[in-house]
Amino acid sequence: MPVFHQKVASSGGAGSIANPNSLALRRLPLVVIPRKRKYKNYVSRRRNTQLLASLRRCVSDPHLYKSYNHWKGLSSPMTPIKSGAPTPSLAPTSKTSTPLTVPPAVPAHKKLTPNPSPTQNPVKLPSPHAVSEKPEKVERPEKSEKPLAEKPKAAVAPTTVPARAPVSKPAAPKTPVATVAPLAEQEGSSSSNQVPAPSPISKQVSGKLTELKSKNGPPTEKTVLRIPSAASTRAKLAAAETQPQPAAPAKPSPFAPAIAPLRDGAAAQPAPVQNVAAPPRPPVAKQNSLQKPPEPKRSLGAPPKPIVPNEAVHKIDGIEFLPKEPEDGQLPTTSTGGPKALRRAYGSKSGTTICAIGSPNVPSTSHAGPPPPDDEKRLIEKKLSLRKKKMAGEGVPGGSLLTGSKSGVEIGLSLNNNNNVKEQTDEQRAKKTVNAVSAAFSTQGGSGAAQGAPPEEPTTTATIREPPPPGAQKPKSAAVQNLITQLQLPASVSAKVDKIIASGDKARKPSRTGLQTQQNRSKIIEQNPLATDRLRDDKDGHLVYSKGDFILNRFVIHETLGEGTFGKVVRVIDTVTDNFMALKIIKNVNKYREAARLEIKVLQRLSERDKDKQNWVIHMGGHFEYQGHMCLMFDLLGPSIFDFLKNNHYRPYPINQTMHIAWQVCKAVKFLHENKLTHTDLKPENILFVSGDYTTQVMDKKPTKVLKETQIRLIDFGSATFDHEHHSTIVSTRHYRAPEVILELGWNQPCDVWSVGCILYELYTGCTLFQTHENREHLAMMERVLGDIPPRMAKKTKTKFFVNGRLDWAQSSPDAAYVRDNCKPLRRSMTCTEPEHVELFEIIEHMLAYEPMGRMKLSEAIEHRWFRRLPSELKHSTVLTPPTKANFPV
Ligand SMILES: Nc1ncnc2c1ncn2[C@@H]1O[C@H](COP(=O)(O)OP(=O)(O)OP(=O)(O)O)[C@@H](O)[C@H]1O
């Protein structure tokens, strides 16, 4: 979804235009905000809310909405505003740019001329704080709705770290300014620069909706998002291209420069409590699919059937819901080479990041995508054959894992057989079970299911999603490629994201097994009217579900808890035990399934080694596959330390709670390291409190939430890497990424320690230490906070960030001013000089040592005198009692 902002570029600034005496209106592509977390990381996880809020304002404004139909024009600079023309309220001319308030309307005669240097325009964002105080709920657009333009190869910026054009650093904006403008400037024509006469918004919206309807079928809540699909935009632009058009100069992606200045919004943000280095990130809006209009109640897969408690099912270590099923494609579970082969083959932990970095036109093996170059094709074939060989050769010790589609089919068939025999009985049981669990939902209201309504009568006319015809994925594949080209990923996203994006949509193709699954689903429905397959996957592969739906006849879906890269996490009631659980439902996409298997393998290893559960890592209660979705069961936990911080207006945790959390995190990560694992994605979002219960106290004259207890669990082992496995070049989410990763010097366990250091700082201050989205700036921030990067590292890196052993960073640039204003030497962030505080900063300082070898080890950290202050009873983990229907507050 493109969002474009306006700004006024002052004369003489980096973004100035020809007429030095006139302020000119600039419109720039700001950023793509798909709804996925992976992209959120790119933009700024904590700023998405603002962006979406801005977008919402944009599309509800007649002028802006109308402008949205003219992508190209809006990404181009306007000619100086003629006298008499409607003039937006301009901020005083200065060296820095100031955001505009949204102009009332642009007359039809106003032409927008192409922007000679859109990359120079900083983009304004609303204050993160303001939005975090007043979060707006905005649905995120679907990925395919991004009108991504095909970019000529010349425009591709294949360098690892794209150089950013000088940015005119504006003063921190107080008022967010947002307008909608095109992304597809490459496709636009001069004729599209013409801004049409204003018309009533209702007319425009209804026109747009009609267009969307005709292109995308019946409007869902998402399609009504006022954002045209990529297809519709392309069609418009293609039509416009028939007009004569000046050749588009080769230029770097507008995204990198446009996104980098996002921090400007943060710059305006006063620190919530203390004078700390960086403002808090705006809240990450977790998608909750249950916010959608309630769907009729249905049963997923088959009608609910009480599951007889079974030892195998309740086994803690790797519950098996399906029998072992050796077959060709079966994946190794404990073999050391398997994951490596998989990761090589699928790029999950391998060089896909580099692909994404260096080769924006990364080859997609999708049948529908553009054919990859020969070398790359050969490479892919080689990787795939290597993977097959490995999987065939290494066997499956333990046999705990199943291949995706086959097992999915078998679940269905097995249900089918049972149901054929006991059709009527099962229907009755279904109704009974639904009524039983509905009590738990009744306090929240909601759909019919929640009200205890019996399940709908199954029909035999369930809709089965047809497999896409060959070639149907083509536009998406192109979009993915273009996304890679334009987003220039490595500056912003974790390896997990890189690998998924770099692989494009190849996993979405209707593979043979996928087709088999579909066919078998149809067969099941034909044979058994009760096994109505009303399951749908959305186009991203997420399971579409509603409150009260059943999974595997056993788990009743209650609520969405969170959404991650790989799928959604839902709160379910286990009808066998009556316990609430967290079920991570992985997308029905091969790539994610395989990644989930790797996560399962790590979780199994950890469970084996942590039998007494004293290491604060989450334990998997079991896993199974459901209609192509890998499902991982976990104990139900509370909010993440980030979520709680956000809901507490970024007020930092008290020092004693910081100490307890720090202890547990150090112990948990130390446990991983002792087991030859590196987590690689440590961040506040991946540390969950066992309970979110809190009291409210007045602190500094403000009501502040204080947790009653601070037991945590470390989650998300989807990126965890064993020592012997391939280490991809880029890991970690940007803000927590260690310098050796940025400098591509190789990484190991110490990169986790760096992340822990950043997290401790965030707990103490409530703010992100390195609030940036760009490598060079990130390094500059590090130098500001921690001193110069050691010459050895500067010399050794193959990146281009250093000249003569010093960071290539113009101290007089606006970027440098931003860094100076928002970062300060580490110890200056201390709020007092009490020994407790000083000792914490000693630890943080040692954790943020540049040299990985010189960095504090976690075994050393827990021996630090600071932790001697922690009461000994808090040094042990408590075993969780899963919440039940009886005691869980719903
Ligand atoms: N056991 C749990 N109890 C409660 N909520 C959970 C649990 N596990 C995960 N969540 C919620 O779901 C979110 C996503 O989970 P998780 O990080 O495992 O998914 P992911 O796809 O790997 O995410 P990411 O893209 O951040 O790596 C978490 O941030 C958290 O809010």
Automatic annotation (TrEMBL):
It comes from the Eukaryota. Keywords: ATP-binding, Kinase, Nucleotide-binding, Serine/threonine-protein kinase, Transferase. InterPro entries: CLK_kinases (IPR051175), Kinase-like_dom_sf (IPR011009), Prot_kinase_dom (IPR000719), Protein_kinase_ATP_BS (IPR017441), Ser/Thr_kinase_AS (IPR008271). It holds the Pfam family Pkinase. GO terms for cellular component: nucleus. Residues 555-867 form the Protein kinase domain. Residues 246-255 have a biased composition (Pro residues). This is Protein kinase domain-containing protein.
